Amino acid sequence: MTMSVEPQATETGLVFPPGFVWGAATAAFQVEGSTTVDGREPSVWDTFAARPGAIRGGDTGEPAADHYRRAGEDVALMRSLGLGAYRFSLAWPRIRPGGTPSVRGIAFYDRLVDSLLAAGIAPWATLYHWDLPQRLEDLGGWTARDTAYRFAEYAETIVGVLGDRVASWSTLNEPWCAAMLGYAKGVHAPGRADPAAAAAAAHHLLLGHGLAMDVLRRDAPRVPAGITLNLYPVTPDSDAPEDIEAARLVDGQQNRLFLDPVLRGGYPADVVADLAPFGFEDVVRPGDESVIAAPVDWLGVNYYRDYRVAGTPRPGSSPAEAEWLGAGNVHFVPDPAAPLTDSGWEVRPGGLTTSLLQVHRDYRPVPLYVTENGAAYPDVPRDGEIADTDRVAFLDAHLRAAHEALEQGVDLRGYFYWSLLDNFEWAEGYAKRFGLVHVDYATQQRTPKRSARWYAEVIARGVLQDHPESATHHSPGHP
Q: What residues make up the catalytic site (predicted)?
């Protein structure tokens, strides 16, 4: 299952291989709204959003982008952009509220998949994008081993219905975020700040992945399945031993903690040692690693940034926070030359090439997809138009980085922009806009931004044109 034509560079631009998947992504809690409709039960994010001060502006999952009621309109929008695939997540609290399959909750995804197929858009379904039912969190959440088995039970319910109509299945989205931001740093749901809980959650999430892969192999054997990880290159600030050690620790917990058990069959010894003070070895039982190592058909790479780290403070550096366990001596060193997104993240497209190459060189052969890549910008409408030239520049630069990986031999099969729609951006609420399509939250009017039209042209041609006039980078807030 390899690409038949090599990527090319022509006089007019960079040509992507035939069959390259062009898509966009969303997540259930971020776009659906309708949080109490058709029997849906509360998720950890509903509970967390109700906590005073947890979410910027006191925002909640209502109304989000009202996708639950406007899915037909949104599928037509995707078709107008020429998307070949739509990556979305399934809401566990809709599908098994109270632990019992819901006919009404399942019916929404049944209709969505059918409408996507009718529009010629491949449905890419993710089983888990962080919306754990609150009733399971009350029983320990991902710190409890039983949650992994309840996840497999949920997977069995929905895979049994959607089965082969889904073009590709993903078990988990960014388990690092669910474990470390949710259970260690406490800035994501469920809002716990307990490093031992985070270590246990990381393992049980991966165990759930392996158990769900068993379900997918049994119930949808002809459909490709994989997992989606947020992988960020980590570079030491210098050759000093303390900087090299800082990079090893962060790379271990950000990348290798998840890549190694999935693609190599076991946890890396140095990361296990790093996590030992937090009880990690106590939660890993004999046989777990072989379950996690269930062969995947593809790996999703979510890329937003890279890290330069030091073992001692540097001018302008900031200390590591709780999401890297035992990282008290780690400091993050900024690149003052890098443009910043509206989230304050450095725009460093070369890191995407590096991430893809690292997986390609260091692990067994596996097809790769960029399953998320995107940026928030202010996106102020002017005369009914959103001229988001920053996002166009971001897209252009990162697609060039993806093509560079192709040219260096990476088996990269597709690219999904994050996000199709402006949406609920977790702890940032509605303050950050990542969408190709602007959403007016008061009226739910959708307005494709300049970036949406630019991306549609790239998709139609399969070519990234040289020096597009619209891809000149501007400072954030100044389109």
A: 372
Question: 423: closest CA among 33, 97, 131?
Answer: 33
- What would the two tokens of residue 69 be? 């009621």
Chosen CATH of 8-471 out of 3.10.20.30, 3.40.50.2300, 3.20.20.80, 1.10.357.10: 3.20.20.80
Place of tokens 């399942």: 106
Q: Are 441 and 424 in contact (CB under 8 A)?
A: no
Series of mean pLDDT values for 10-residue runs along the chain (479 residues): 47 90 98 98 98 98 98 98 98 98 98 98 98 98 98 98 96 98 98 98 99 98 98 98 98 98 98 98 98 98 98 96 95 96 97 98 98 97 94 98 98 98 98 98 97 98 74 34
Which residue carries 């995707």 as its tokens? 78
Distance CA 161, CA 159 (A): 5
Is pTM beyond 0.85 here? yes
How many CB atoms sit inside 10 A of residue 389's CB? 20
Residue 230's nearest CA partner among 100, 374, 107 is 374
| Cα–Cα dist 402/404, whole Å | 5
> What values do phi and psi take at 414, rounded to 5?
-175, 170
CA distance 20 to 26: 20
Amino acid 307 reads: Y
Annotated catalytic residue, options 156, 372, 404, 425:
372
Q: Could you say which DSSP state residue 334 is in?
A: P
d(CA 269, CA 274): 9
Is the distance from CB of 264 to CB of 191 less than 8 angstroms?
no
Q: How many angstroms from the chain centroid is the CA of residue 322?
A: 20
**How far, CA to CA in Å, does 276 sit from each of 144, 195, 196?**
18, 11, 9
Q: Pull the structure tokens for residue 338.
A: 């890098």
Based on the residue annotation, tell me whether 372 is a catalytic residue of this protein: yes
CA distances, 450 to each of 380, 382, 389, 391, 425 (Å): 12, 12, 7, 9, 21
